[in-house]
Amino acid sequence: MTKSARPSAINTPFDDLGLAVSCREPLSHHTWLGIGGEAEFFCEPVDVDALAKLVRRCHESGIAFRVIGGGSNVLIPEAGFAGLVLRLSAPAFGGIDVQRPAIVAGAGAKLVHLVSAAVQAGLSGLENLVGVPGTVGGALVGNAEGHGGDIGARVREVSLMLPSGEIDLRSGPRLAFGSRWSNLDDGIVIGCRFELDAEDPDQLTKRMQKQWIVERSSQPSGTRAVAMMFKDPLGTTAESLVSQAGGRELRLGEASVYPTHANYVVASPGCSSDDIRGLIELVRGKVRERFGVDLTPQIEMW
Ligand SMILES: Cc1cc2nc3c(=O)[nH]c(=O)nc-3n(C[C@H](O)[C@H](O)[C@H](O)COP(=O)(O)OP(=O)(O)OC[C@H]3O[C@@H](n4cnc5c(N)ncnc54)[C@H](O)[C@@H]3O)c2cc1C
């Protein structure tokens, strides 16, 4: 060991916390697109206390941090992320508790599990989200939308961890949801309470199945390496604008527009983040040129 090397026991700014923080985690393993660089530090905390310790340390030491949910709506640059990436995969963050007519869910729970739990319990209001990939946390932050409604419409209380490590319980006017937007982007969503309506479980199941068929037919199939490119502008769909602007045939490097669902980009083997980013800009430019509409990217570029 050279004089300047750090002792092997202290490798990260988090070592004295006694938590399992790893270094240089490939974030491609945690995203749908399967591309992008490494997280400088990475941790899947076991509970809220562990999460608070990590967040506080970041806050005090000026270390940037981010949460990754299901990774279905993020584009990680090739340079990766300089800071700590957190994933709420531990059971402490994945609970789904039916408390009729409410459901309390952890941010790390899969949205698909939440929707099935609600339908099985005969509680309606979330079934329109069937088929939307990702976690409850990711869906809340981006106000995920299905056929006929968004998740925000059913949210009554959110527990958010602030960068100081404190928990902020938000409800009523302190909660705001808009088109693929919420005011929950200033902290880490820990969990949430939904208020739902009682309905016959058989009827609800049939409705969900119908919606599932519609959702499946509107998504690319055969590969998971896809991402939604743009939010729908008012009064029309991004897919129709991209198609009419001739975007279906576009590709850049190993990134291409999914021909039958033109608001999705597909990453072929060897695809880089720059390919995806460049293609999105190319498609956006075509739509701007043809219709004068500036599409807003749906996928979040880290
Ligand atoms: C095939 C396909 C179909 C899709 N269909 C739809 C659709 O019908 N409707 C729709 O709305 N979207 C759709 N999307 C987009 C995407 O699935 C949603 O935006 C989803 O809600 C993202 O959830 P996630 O857990 O994967 O979030 P991630 O992609 O992991 O993260 C998205 C953002 O949320 C933040 N985040 C995640 N968890 C937390 C947390 N606990 N606290 C704070 N911040 C957090 C991340 O930091 C990141 O900024 C689709 C995507 C794909 C690939």
Tell me briefly what this model is.
The protein folds into 3 domains: 15-90, Uridine Diphospho-n-acetylenolpyruvylglucosamine Reductase, domain 2; 94-217, Uridine Diphospho-n-acetylenolpyruvylglucosamine Reductase, domain 3; 226-301, Alpha-Beta Complex (Uridine Diphospho-n-acetylenolpyruvylglucosamine Reductase, domain 1).
Q: What proportion strand?
A: 25-35%
What assembly state would you assign to the polypeptide chains in this entry? single chain
CATH topology of the largest domain: Uridine Diphospho-n-acetylenolpyruvylglucosamine Reductase, domain 3
Shape: globular
Count all strands and give the number.
21
What is the succession of H and E elements?
EEHEEEEEHEHEEEEEEEEHEHEEEHE
Number of discrete domains? 3
Bound molecules: flavin-adenine dinucleotide
Specify the biggest β-sheet.
Answer: 5 strands, antiparallel
Helix amount, in percent? 10-25%
* Number of alpha- plus pi-helical segments: 6
Q: Architecture of the largest domain in CATH?
A: 2-Layer Sandwich
Rg value? 20 Å
* Structural class category: alpha+beta
**Spatial separation of the terminal alpha carbons:** 35 Å
CATH class annotation of the largest domain:
Alpha Beta
What is the overall pLDDT average? 94
Spatial strand order of the main sheet: 6-7-15-11-12
Query: Could you list the spans in which at least 5 consecutive residues all have pLDDT below 50?
Result: 1-8
